Amino acid sequence: MIIDHIGLAVADYEKSKAFYSKALAPLGIALVMEVEGWVGFGKNGKPEFWFGVHRDKQRPMHIAFAADNRNQVKAFHAAALSAGGKDNGAPGIRDIYHPNYYGAFVIDPDGHNIEAVCHKPET
User: Domains of the chain: which residue ranges?
Assistant: First the structure.
């Protein structure tokens, strides 16, 4: 990963925490810690994705999470929809990027475009 961590503002801390806890679980990403109104999600005890309530509204962002395989992408999409996300692109190949770009997109509770992507060929 080229970024050590990223943080963004959300409108409803508990709603976002519930959404991301469920949506990111299929990718092996979990809540690692909470500090002063911010929550950090990551793997292996390292929080890399942070959010918290902030007085300034954040414009929607696009964030893509790496998946180990295409089944994780499918599971992410299903979990995110089940958690209240809005479909923004069903799991599938996006060959506009490259032949093995397999991604799925959802809109989170704050309007952010959240993606899970696998760059590996189907096994």
Answer: 6-53+60-118
